[in-house]
Specification:
9 strands; alpha/beta; TIM Barrel; eight-stranded parallel beta barrel; globular; about 10% strand; binds iron/sulfur cluster
Length: about 375
Amino acid sequence: MPDHQDIADRPTATAAVATETWTRPAPGEAQFLALLRADPARELENMARRAQQLTRQHFGRAITLYAPLYLANFCSGGCAYCGFAADRPHPRRRLEPAEVTAELAAMKAMGFEQVLLLTGERTPQADFDYLLANVRAAARVMHEVTVEAFPMTVAEYRQLAAAGCTGVTLYQETYDPVSYAQWHRWGPKRDYAARLEAPARALEAGIRTIGLGALLGLADPISEAVALYRHVCALQKHYWRSGVSVSFPRLRPEAGGFTPPAPVSDTQLAQIILAFRICLPDTPLVLSTRESPALRDGLAGLGITRMSVASRTTVGGYSQAAVHATGQFAVSDERDIATFCAMLRQQGLDPVFKNWDAAYRVAGEA
Ligand code: SF4
């Protein structure tokens, strides 16, 4: 359990965000909770209609597309649910500069203008300097570069921003401290409070957008959704010039065979997403290829505004697909870009590959 008093005593904005996430109901929370608890047989359709209206109103017909690029599968962490955990026996490697160039070129050729760079927890093989060098490399090629890696200090986030990183994704995984302690078996990620404050540190450092999420399936989904909602609201209040987005990763099969202790059904996942859209109408909501084509097709534009497509969760997956086949998790939607975009257009939605220009990066960035 994090020491709430300890967090509360720290007089910084980042500590204030953590305190609010833990102790204070957020504006609109009563409505949010009522939507989460509504009977889906009676209310889901109404919620879907309302969510679609709000999505149209705030985002038009645009669905922004991106893809992850796994830089390395080294990890010092022991997350019980992850195929990259340090006790998994599969081969480890990282991409060297020429390989990163090849991956980025393969992704550009597929049409991507934004990339999400991923690594595990810090290791000597894939540390902060390695990540920083790869942000610089990606920023030379892509218009938008975001990162999903380990929690960093404000000074490190500042360096990432200066190198061209505009967004950081960092999921708390579970907001339930007991579940958190159970599934994060060793390593720096066991520090719940340090992770909870990291998104605020990134925004404090000038990173433009932060992506939050809970790994659905680890703990009671309603409690997780409420804690996530509070975290979003607290960040939006303290860092109102920055952007906050919300993802809905749901546990998928991985090499270690982890079984979700609190499985979330398709209906419940949809209800959570719709509740977020109704209560946070202008917050971008993200859905990855972890989910099935049918579910993704149904939720595109109904609340979801940003989606990954044609994702490879292996290291070197775009340019050397057959070489290292153990991914972080199983991809469920394996459609190629043309097929996916055709589906979006058929629904009257516009696939968007570029919604940020490298020229907007502040002076001093790469
Ligand atoms: S979730 Fe991240 S930190 Fe945990 S084992 Fe996987 S790669 Fe490592």
